[in-house]
Amino acid sequence: MLDAPPLADAPADGGPARHRPGVVPFPEEDVARYRAAGLWGTATLAQEFRAVADAHPDRPALVTATGTLTFADLDEQTDRIAHGLGRLGLRPGDPVVFQVTNRVETVLAWYAVLKAGAVPVCSLAFHRGHEISQITRQVGAVAHLVEAGTGSFDLVAFGREQAAGHPTLRILLTTGAPGGEPGGPGEPVAVETLGAGTDPALARAWVEEVQAGIDPDDVAVFQLSGGTTGVPKVIPRLHAEYWYNARAYAAEWRWDTSSRVAHLIPIIHNAGVVCGLHAPHSVGACLVLTTADLDQALPLMAAAGATDVLFGHGHFGAVDHPAFPAASAALRTVVLSGTKVPTALFETFERAGLWTGQLFGMGEGMFLTTSPGTSRRVRNHTVGTPLSPLDEVRILQPTSEEPVPAGAVGELATRGPYTIRGYFRAAEHNARAFTGDGFYRTGDLASVTELDGVPAVSIEGRIKDVINRGGEKVNAEEVELLLLQHPAVAAAAVVAMPDPRLGERACAYLVATGAPIGLEDVRRHLDGLGVAKFKWPERLEWVPELPKTLVGKLDKKRLREDITARLRAE
């Protein structure tokens, strides 16, 4: 056993994923098949990163507005921080909730937590008490990492509030706040200051000992679902399959050590971790990490010589920004994601000399892409083909496990080497969300069509009642139930209304108990309930009653048509 910090025992419910309570394992025969095919490795995420850093120590790993870190820099600094996390009492297997934005300290914290053997839980900086209090209890979070100085909302104070009376939260970490040893329960410690002065050889040896005790088939990361049934479900991602997901994505876009991959959307998100962080690092490429603000992002892309970029729906207009010509000088590939891509947008980017493809993905696993070489016809009419040769796709009748006829529209169901077999501690929900033989029912309506010799998937809509606001999924029923807690609201129906920037926003059709209230009153109500701001309705329509179908069910189709017509008229 090495010197301090000593390695603590694993949590009581620890052990490999196949033995951990609440995790649905991959069948042993599938694990053997994925390894035999060379897809799953036998190392943890931290060990995989260490191997890349050892191979490319002097190459740039991370560029932000504050400077550049090489792989050697990033590796050594995260060893030190990991050692410091161990001194704070963080144990292998302990869940750590991340609530931070795109900055260098976020990447340092990410790899350090993994190196300490803990499990990042990927929440969003704009989640609030309604979401965080339930997520932290479901996973048994031990630590909460928040960002200091975020402006209008004090995440550090929020972290203290969440820890008060919590059954498991005992460590509050920050990025960008005064650091040092904690002054008492609930006092924050700046993660970037941890382990200062620690001998690099000691820190590295400690990390290696921690990692030697972790099964590569154990849970590495908890992601969160889009929340189609209330508070987001927890998605357990395993070391071996999660790194494979990233390696396959890098290969799909032909990245190598010369690639500089720009990322603007939240990095602590499945697309951020897989596409922005792990994928470039898996091949020794550089992540150019910036914010969603194009005024900041595009100049950094230009200065860093970004070669590839993922744009979410909120950035589809980037090509019209005055800084885009300089930002795109070194660009080779633009990946578009978050919603159906208009044909004209492909043409706009490609007139600028940029290969433009798209990504359709989900935290549960499956990625569909139109990678370089895919015909324009396939890109215009589909979201492409599965990332892995061992991915499986079925199109099912929405109410059964029976497949639809070839070419027909049904529910997209998937299974494969990086798609989970069940949500964490959600047996009842898993019985509905997965087929008897382990296919994940996505809730998306899709069809498979052969175009130019390629059997590609097209997304035709969704079954789940979800608003896709710039890539973030808002569960309509969850918001409706929250609105009904206001005494002025007798009935509520939340529907998607089209939006040119974000794709969709939420509109609430409401029936009043008396006098209608204003949008600001509704927002104050939801804010008081601790609901994340991106879920708040952005328009109200007060009606005498909500429309019903012939069989007496709420007719949301009519409401969506109504708001679309209203917006068109306006």
TrEMBL record:
AMP-dependent synthetase/ligase domain sequence ranges: 49-424
AMP-binding enzyme C-terminal domain residues: 478-553
GO molecular function: medium-chain fatty acid-CoA ligase activity
InterPro entries from the UniProt entry: AMP-bd_C, AMP-bd_C_sf, AMP-binding_CS, AMP-dep_synth/lig_dom, ANL_N_sf
Top-level taxon of the source organism: Bacteria
GO biological process, one term: fatty acid metabolic process
Alphabetical UniProt keywords: Ligase
Gene3D superfamilies: 3.30.300.30, N-terminal domain of ligase-like
Keyword Hydrolase: no
Region described as Disordered: 1-22
Biased composition (Low complexity): 1-15
PROSITE patterns: AMP_BINDING
Family the UniProt entry places it in: Belongs to the ATP-dependent AMP-binding enzyme family.
Protein name from the UniProt record: Non-ribosomal peptide synthetase component E (Peptide arylation enzyme)
Native species: Klenkia taihuensis
